[in-house]
Amino acid sequence: MGPSSGSCVVEFARAGARAFVCAVAGLAAALLFAVPGPREAWAYTGSPAPAADLAPAPATDLARALAADLAPAPATDLARALAADLAPAPATDLARPLAADLAPAPAADLARTLAAASASGELDYIEIMTGGAGRDEAVPMIIAVHGLGDRPEQFSFLFRPLALPARVILPRGITPAGYGGYSWFPFVIGASGDRFAAGVASAAHRLSNLINKLHATKPVLGRPIITGFSQGGMLSFAIAALHPNDVSTALPLSGFLPVQLWPDPTLPLPPAGAHLPRVRAFHGEADTVISLKPAEWSVTVLADRGYDAELETYPGVGHTISSEMRADYYDALSAAVLAAANWDGGRNSGRMTVPPRETAPLQLPPAPVSPDLPPSLNSGSR
Question: In which domain, by residue range, is 189 found?
């Protein structure tokens, strides 16, 4: 059984009031995987003119509604807005204005509505090869989606220790979010639940287009693997729910699936043998940016609809990737890569052996401090 609608409204209302704080997630991810010294020369692949990705979507009602929310705001303005908007409010006061917006809508209907608004513009991405694989070699493909305020170059450091041969595609978020980072969808304080879910589904639709294009044009073994942190975790859930045929496995880190995108409970369960991606989610129990409860509900709902879905939780861990979480995550990622490598009947599996489990934390440089953000966002906590 899934969660009750009343408790769902309250918890998602709380999550909505905190959602813009996911800027912390982007900064945390940037701090986690940044390294000092000269940058590599990164070559983005995608649309000939990256600026086209930032142009307003086709002039549908949905696109017009979202257009004003997609403009980046200076960090100082954001900090001022957060100071007033993020003070705790009674759950009933938050739930009341959002109640009408949080009723589940059939995911397929919402996806169809968004298709026209999100079809324009290809996503830019960078590509890295792990485990000594060559770019022309057929290997499993990982789609790795960064969080709010992060960018592919920095998020890529999470995947460089992967010992298995794989092709890692790191797409870049749609809208600049300050400090060189990007956002996948707008977080607007006071926006309706439907608008938030529409942003998630629209970004997932564009990711689906990229996944299918790359799967058709690059040498790939098996179905791709989708993974990501924070906003990227939400999009990993959304791809599994809205575009299940695109991927073999979804590995969300510190994310959840908005209630409007839950599979329609009135539809029959998929027939036996139908493809549904495996879902393995990871979440800190002390996460105050995206709380644990929505992630628990997301996994429960997917499991009720026939998905092989599980959630690993970590006591005392906030909105970050702890060393224990990272070790479990690498285990799950390695298992997904091995499964994809065996797609060809095992002919390529000779190269694929599970690397030793890593438990030591990454060696990180001191956390930089931004003068334009309040002290609460400059703690450098990981």
Answer: 5-264+285-377
